[in-house]
Amino acid sequence: MKKRYAIFLFLWITIVPCLNAQKKEIQQAEAIVKSGKNLDRAEKQMRKLLTDSVNRRNLKIWTTMTNAVRGQYLQGNENLYLHLKQDTAALFKLAHKMFRDYQAMDSVDALPDKKGRIRIKYRSSHAAFLQTYRPNLYNGGVFFLRRHSYQEAFTLLDAFLDCQRQPLFENQHFEQDPLNPTAAFWTVLCGYQLDNPSMALKYKDLALQDTVRLENCLQYLAEIYKKQCDKQLYEQTLVDGFERYPNSSYFFPRLIDHLNSTNQRDRAMTIVDEALAANDSSELFIFAKSNMLLNQGDYDACIALCDTLIARNDTLADAYYNAGVAYVNKAFLIEKGRVGAKQRKQMRQLYQKALPYMERYRALAPQEKDKWAAALYNIYLKLNMGREFEEIDRILR
Fold first, then answer.
1. Each residue's pLDDT tens digit, 162-192
2. SS (H, E, C) 111-146
3. Cα(330)–Cα(32) distance, integer angstroms
4. Where are the alpha helices (DSSP H) in the chain?
5. Neighbouring C-alpha atoms within 13 Å toward the C-beta of 96
6. Burial class, 340, CB count within 10 angstroms (exposed 0-12 / middle 13-18 / buried 19+)
7. Which of 71, 234, 246, 319 could potentially form a cystine with 309 if both were Cys, beta carbons 3.0 to 4.6 Å apart?
8. Which residues of 211-245 are buried (b: 16+ CB within 10 A; e: fewer)?
């Protein structure tokens, strides 16, 4: 009995001074908050107390700390409003910290007491206060986006959107905020820029509701799925993008390339024909079909389409290339069989027809040396154009 009493007495002697010291520290922090000066010091003191798990449920400490953070934020906000010296980036980060701390406090406030009762004391007043400043989480995200600070931008935008699921804001109806889809789109952009798929896809469904930026959103998502090697979602996103934006230079060519590369050539041709049926004047669609006809070996049809394109726009370099290759390939087919005088004449005629197309392609796309040099090498060789052949030969070396 005496031993138990001695242990109790020892604990009492040990604990009481600690409790008194803690109480004094809280009172000092409260006085600092009340004075409105050195608020960061009061915040640090309370954060230090909260690192001890024993203090995690002490709402007095939480209240003092959140008041300190709140005071810092309001002071910075006032400085900004009055055009006084203020670090804007730091202020937005402080806004994020304030929301994070109030949400953490709310989770403690909502814990049941020793008798299992839940009596939430601060939620209503805290939610009403924070509701006014939630738009600054969005504004901060846009601020960091403009500075290309994508990680910081995502952090604030994520906090802005996360308010919807926080119990602290259960009565604020933030899910109805018209800014939500736009904020979600910006998170997709952040994840795309940071090459972070999980970040980009976190709010993708909400981002797709931003009709103003939907085209860009689908492009970012397609690139993300491509990097993830998710062929199914990549294809579906390209299909969705093409159906909504058929004249976009992004979706259609990538969709056709994807279908061809995955041995869906019949489907690719069907899509091309449907696209042309809807818009037979589209240079993009006509060229796509010429490309497919070239790959299928339907050279005459390919040449006819290329000539149609060139008649409309004589600066379309790839149209000249496809036509030139089609003529060269026709000559190659003859060369594979028995070659007599008649066949040699036909081959020469085909190379002569290919020549102006490929030389025009070279003039329009001089940087594409790997494409026109090899073709012109064969054409000059077959047509016995010695000077031109020697030039190409030097280029290829």
1. 999 999 999 999 999 999 999 999 999 999 9
2. CCCCCCCCCCCCHHHHHHHHHHHCHHHHHHHHHHHH
3. 88
4. 2-35, 39-50, 59-81, 88-109, 123-133, 135-146, 150-162, 180-193, 197-201, 204-207, 214-227, 231-244, 251-261, 265-278, 283-296, 299-312, 317-336, 341-364, 369-382, 386-396
5. 23
6. exposed
7. 319
8. eebbebbbbbbbbbbbeeeeeeebbebbebbbeeb
Residue carrying structure tokens 């206060």: 129
Look at residue 11 in the predicted model and tell me its pLDDT. 43
Cβ partners under 8 Å of residue 46, min gap 6: 26, 29, 61, 62, 64, 65, 68
CB of 338 within 8 A of CB of 351?
Answer: no
Q: What is the pTM of this model?
A: 0.84
* Residue 126, φ and ψ in degrees, nearest 5: -65, -40
Within 10 angstroms of residue 55's Cβ, the number of other Cβ atoms is 16
Residue 10, classified by CB atoms within 10 Å of its CB into exposed (0-12), middle (13-18) or buried (19+), is exposed
Q: Note the residue count of the chain.
A: 397
CA distance 7 to 330: 102
**Gyration radius of the chain's alpha carbons:** 35
| Contact yes or no for 186/153 (Cβ under 8 A) | yes
User: What's the confidence (pLDDT) of residue 126?
Assistant: 97
Q: Tokens 């802005």 identify what position?
A: 160
Cα gap 149→396, rounded to integer Å: 45
Per DSSP, 58 falls in state: -
Which two tokens mark 250? 């992004």
| 264 has a pLDDT exceeding 80 | yes
Q: How many CB atoms lie within 10 A of CB 369?
A: 13
Distance (Å, whole) CA 224 – CA 191: 9
Q: Are 119 and 87 in contact (CB under 8 A)?
A: no
Measure the CA–CA gap between 159 and 388, rounded to whole angstroms.
Answer: 66
